[in-house]
Amino acid sequence: EADIYQTPRYLVIGTGKKITLECSQTMGHDKMYWYQQDPGMELHLIHYSYGVNSTEKGDLSSESTVSRIRTEHFPLTLESARPSHTSQYLCASSGTGKYTGGNTIYFGEGSWLTVV
Amino acid sequence: DQQVKQNSPSLSVQEGRISILNCDYTNSMFDYFLWYKKYPAEGPTFLISISSIKDKNEDGRFTVFLNKSAKHLSLHIVPSQPGDSAVYFCAASEDAGNMLTFGGGTRLMVKP
Description:
The structure holds 2 protein chains of 2 kinds. By secondary structure, chain A is mainly β. Helix content of chain A is 0%, strand content 47%. Classes of the chains: A mainly beta, B mainly beta. Chains A and B meet through strand 9 and strand 10 of A and strand 4, strand 5 and strand 9 of B.
């Protein structure tokens, strides 16, 4: 079992609110990722980090921002949520830490965000 | 341009039979391939992987086949069980880093 945790699992929030989705991993992985998936659709990479103080935007443009101050923590923030942000957000990590198999990405359980 | 494609959005199989999920890729630099399984409202879980130096990798009921010349891989599940009903994603990466490119997924339904 992969040790990567996301909170909250489910969140319903009003338009214009600021939200932060938390993600932590205890595997010592250096690389972390955020993917977005709408129901029945593809997984899209929106942010990634190769280590502390490293953040990059992914293939899919997103209004969210991320930070990587600690190796184990990679939170995602939306400053002003809109209904178009309603989606499932999946945090993931990979590396040569606790689990070998360098290119294998391990996912958290996901955070379902609904903006009303 | 999608570099990893799963052309069948859904597949229905009878319990006990073989499920074959297909995946095609266009990037010849990909050399590591993975399959993930995803239940609704959960994150994808890693199933099985294969590197380009092999053409087959087996783990219990799951076998992945890689045909490099055709840029094609497939996942075989035998025998299929109702609990295998989920969305299956194939993914690929180049050796240089751990960035995975995912296919669009195939929804497998195993009927009892």
